[in-house]
Amino acid sequence: MKRGTVVILGIYVTDLAFRAERMPLIGETIPGSAFAMGPGGKGSNQAVAAARAGADVIFCTRIGADAFGEIAQSTWRAEGITSRATVLEGVSTGAAHIYVDERTGGNAIIVAAGAAGTLCPADVDAIEADIADAAVFVTQLEQPIPAAMRGLELARKHGATTVFNPAPALPLPDDIYPLCDYITPNETEATALTGIAIASTDDARRAADALLAKGARAVIVTLGEAGALLHSAEESVLVPAFDCGRVVETAGAGDGFTGGFAAALARGESPSDAVRFGCALASLSVTRAGTAPSMPTLEEINAVLGERRAAVSNGA
Fold first, then answer.
1. Is 188 annotated for ligand binding?
2. Virtual CA dihedral for 252, 237, 171, 62, nearest 10 degrees?
3. What are the residue ranges spanned by the domains of the chain?
4. Contact at 8 Å (CB) between 94 and 114?
5. Angle of CA points 119, 10, 12, to nearest 5°
């Protein structure tokens, strides 16, 4: 594969995160223990994760001409991400309500994509030159499916490795799967796509086989604290998660994994090593609050990987 840039198509939203001991019932108001506002959206989070992990990143989206859009632009500048964002007048930048369980770090999220929800194939055609020069192309499902499809088609046309994160889970056209070098569902998404409930690694392998049968070249089922399963015709490897400390918030873990995996692929790492790198990144991210702000640096990730290698060599 080519080495170099990661191009990501997806949405930006501003995260509005509330910490509380439980979700309120309809018609009920409860006290929260904390509130934070920051950059989010699956595509933008993945871009931040990949950039902090050492990749050159180009991010394509749409934002509004408003205060949340200004937060987006300043975030990408600070992270060294090249923006291909179209700014729309009269349409708001997206936002997300995130409930965080203050005891476990678990989350529930409502996303309103705003301007990014209007992304279309023409936006992708406008960055074809970027995709042609990229090593890896990444997209998800928070923007409309036709835009994601067009990105995968152009990436395949130009020889970029394609990483498709099918989140949130939606019904998909059959012809999207053969465009995927890697498809990266979590347990819930894998179940939605295959009808196979996942309660074990063997279940994950069966679901992954079903996705291979649909045409994907390789499947990575992310399994939370159990790690991630890399499954293809050539190999099936369960890569464990890392114990990096107390779990604070899990909202950015999946995006961190995908961004880290893409960054590692882009610099030429093997698929299994790239999955291990993504697991280390995600394991660090859950020890911190926020989505994009929780993403660790390359130095932090390499330190965790070094500790694991040292433990293995010492027989731990």
1. no
2. 40
3. 6-21+34-311
4. yes
5. 95
Does the model's pTM come out above 0.85? yes
Tens of pLDDT, residues 175-184: 999 999 999 9
- Is 27 annotated for ligand binding? no
**Per the residue annotation, which of 123, 181, 203, 255 is the catalytic one?**
255
Strands of the sheet containing 13-20, edge to edge, are 34-40, 13-20, 93-101, 107-114
pLDDT tens by residue, 189-227: 999 999 999 999 999 999 999 999 999 999 999 999 899
- Given the DSSP bridges, would you call strands 34-40 and 13-20 parallel, antiparallel or unpaired? antiparallel
227 is in an annotated binding site: yes
Domain 6-21+34-311 has CATH 3.30.200.20: no
The answer to whether 6 is a known ligand-binding residue is no
Question: Alpha helices, DSSP H only, in the chain?
Answer: 42-52, 67-79, 121-125, 128-133, 145-158, 187-194, 201-214, 253-266, 271-285, 298-313
Cβ-proximal residues to 307 (8 Å cutoff; 6+ apart), any chain: none
Q: Catalytic: 175?
A: no
Question: Does residue 186 have a known ligand-binding role?
Answer: yes
> Are the CB atoms for 245 and 225 separated by under 8 Å?
no
Q: Are 13 and 111 in contact (CB under 8 A)?
A: yes
